[in-house]
Structures are given as structure tokens and as C-alpha cells.
Amino acid sequence: MTNSNGRRLLVTNGTIYADGSRIEGGRMLIGADGRIEAIGGTELKAAEAQVLDLAGNLAIPGLVDQHVHGGGGWQAMDGTYEGLNGMSLFHAANGTTAFLATTDSAAEVEIVEALRNAVRSAGSGLEGAELLGVHLEGPFLNPVRCGAQDKANIRAADPDELGRYLEAAGGLIRLVTVAPEIEGGMEATERLSRAGITVSAGHSDATLAQMREAILRGATQTTHHFNGMSPFHHREPGVAGAGLICPELTTELIADGIHVHPDAVKLLYDVKGPYGVCVITDAVYCAGLPDGEYGDTTMKDGQVWLKDGSSLAGSSLTMIQALRNVLRFTGRPLEEVLPSLTEVPARQIGVSARKGKLAAGMDADFLVLDGALALQSTYIRGREVYAKRAAGNPIG
User: Fold this and answer.
1) Which among 29, 14, 94, 133 has a CA at the least distance from the CA of 358?
2) What is the average pLDDT across 15-36?
3) Burial of 52 by CB count in 10 Å (0-12 exposed, 13-18 middle, 19+ buried)?
4) Average pLDDT score over the chain
């Protein structure tokens, strides 16, 4: 992919958050191939480069969402290019530059079709945020902690079924949520880990001892921490406690202030640090749409619940709002919390060699924000895929 004019791009006249540093009056030179060539101050010049004047705004690394089911009226389980493309446009307009299409517990044939569609769509290319692969969330979960996942479609971790998913995905599965304590769960954890796929313990009723075994088998994170898992108790810390106690585990976090209380968000950061927290949206089909009923869910005041009120059913969160929330909940500065939405997810899904920060050699994925952290534009590999416009912009 090249930038819009197939030319080098010089980003100038703003504050650039680059590789852990904050450069006032910074400049960033992007090659015609969409990769960053250099970052520096006013000494950085480039003849015949197209100029992007930040006009005093901020440039931050693009936000990476490793756990997102849908948004803007689209979802990964649609099994269509239009579904994934619609998701990519919606989330690019809300700060996401790369994502994993996340599945639900469903019949095997539906999951296989969603995986095959991800392969086709990745090959065709999407118009918005870049599709990096798939997060397989279910069906190998514990029905005791199913949450909004369909209990009728939750099942033991059958190795043959898992093999069929791996085959259908053609190498695109980067993350799998497994309840390690279920039948076949530990074996699946070990198999996936050996294949280079990140394993996350989620929708799990595991004990701390079982979680420690899962870590030995290759588990490296938890799914939407505190939600859909055995809670912390002083006599049995469960999965929630394991995430806090075990340094091997990175903790996913839905930072909407609904799934996890703002003070618990701060606690998680205080215990794990920004490099131990991976902020996600867990956004679903109705994110970005008006309140109302959507299938078996209801959204009111931005909260998405099953119609019977028994469980939250994903979120209406966007990554840019998650960033603002984490800043407000924790009181930490922007440069300190950014890794949780950029470097950490890139690390967890194995793409940190080209995604997650602004540095020479990395993909030029970045956001332009104003001083209030309102999104002005989104760039992926040096190409603008979203720009804030007047009312009526279909994706703004």
C-alpha cells in the first residue's frame, strides 16, 4: 500500500507521540511505501515530499483493537465482506487503525464461514481500519461464565473441531479465548500456544491453580478482565485474581466505566501497569447506532444488555473514547497510557514489528487529535482513511 499520492509525506507543525517520547514541534517523514522513515524536530526535511500540517494538533500511534465484534450496524459474524468493511470504516472513524475480527459462540458452520470470510476480506483489503486477523472467542468456554455468549453453542474443546477452524482461517487466527478448565481446554491451550497463537483465558470458572497450569501450557492473557470469569475471593483468587497476581498474564480491559468500575480500572493499572493492560472495545453491532432493540439485545444510554437483563452483551465503546476514559479514570498522562491501546495489543497478537508505535521502520498508522483529544483524521500506512467533516459525513 502507498500513501494517497504515491509520494513521501512530511508530517509537521505539531506534537508527535513517538516511541515513548513526546516531541513538541515534531516532524515525521513517511515513505511512499507507507512506512515511517524518520522522526525528529525541525531539522528533519524532505525535498519534494507532500506536507501534512498538523496545525498545532497531536499525532499519536493508531489504536489497535484485538477484541471487537462489530459496530456501525455491521458485525464479523455476518460472514460477508460488507460486514467487515463496514466495521473497518466505523472504527477507523473512531480511532482504530487495526483490529481483529472477533467471533461468537455459534454453530460450527457459522464460525467456519466467518473465518473464511475474514480470509477473503483480508485478501481484498478493507477501506478503513486494517484487518490483522481473527480473535476466536468461543465456542470453547465454560457455560457457568457464558455471559451473553449463547450457552447452547458452548462446548468442550474438541481437537478435531479446533483443527477445522485453524484450517479455515488459513493462518489468520491470532488470538483464541479458551476456558482452560473445561474438557480439552488445557490441551487446546498448549496446541495453540505452540502454533504461535495467543491464548486468553476467558468465560472461565478456573481456580488460581488451574490458571497457573494454563500459564505453564502457554496462556498469556485474560479476556475482558473482571467480566465473564471467576471473581477474586481471598480464599480462592480465581481468574480475576490470577490476572492481578501472575505477571505472565496481560489483562484485557473494557474501559467504558460500565463493565468495570472506574476505580477498578485505576486499580488494574496500579497493579499491572500500562504494559500489563490491553484496552479493548468488545464493541458489537449496535455500537454507534441509536438506542433501541437489536436482535436479542437492547441498547439504552449506550449500555448493551440481553433483553432479559441477565447480562451485558458487549459494548458500544470506541477506542478513542476508551483512551479518554482511561485518562480520566487513572489520572495518568497520555504518553503513559497510550501503550495499553497501541503497543500492548500489537505485542499480544504478534504484530509489534510493524504496528503499535511511531518509529522508523513501522507502518505509518496514526491519528491526528486536537487538544481535547477529539479525532480529526485517521491515517493507515500514510494514507488518510478518515477526516472529520461537517455534519452529514456518513462515517464521521
Assistant:
1) 29
2) 95
3) buried
4) 95
Instruction: List, by residue number, the catalytic residues.
Output: 282
CB 176 within 8 A of CB 203: no
CA-CA-CA-CA torsion for 76, 77, 83, 85, nearest 10 degrees? 20
* Predicted confidence (pLDDT) per residue in 180-238, tens digit: 999 999 999 999 999 999 999 999 999 999 999 999 999 999 999 999 999 999 999 99
Cell of 178: 479458551
- Report the C-alpha gap between 376 and 386 in whole angstroms: 8
Q: Provide the CB-side half-sphere exposure for 334 (13 A, CA).
A: 19
* Among 300, 325, 322, 295, residue whose Cα is nearest residue 148: 295
Instruction: Name the amino acid, one letter, at 348.
Output: Q
Nearest to 184 by CA among 196, 176, 173: 176
- What gap in Å lies between CA 188 and CA 194, rounded to an integer? 10
Domains and CATH numbers, the chain: 9-60+357-387 (2.30.40.10), 63-348 (3.20.20.140)
Please report, as a single letter, which amino acid is at residue 117.
Answer: N
328: burial class by Cβ within 10 Å (0-12, 13-18, 19+)? middle
Residues 6+ apart with CB under 8 A from 118: 76, 84, 101, 131, 133, 134, 169, 172
Percent of residues, the chain, with pLDDT higher than 90: 93
pLDDT confidence bin for 1, thresholds 50/70/90: very low
pLDDT of 5 reads 58
- Judge whether residue 393 has pLDDT over 50: no
Q: Measured between alpha carbons, how far is 206 from 212 in angstroms, rounded to an integer?
A: 10
Q: Cβ(178)–Cβ(217) under 8 Å?
A: no
- pLDDT score, position 396: 41
Q: Is the pLDDT of residue 390 over 90?
A: no
Does residue 43 surpass a pLDDT of 90? no
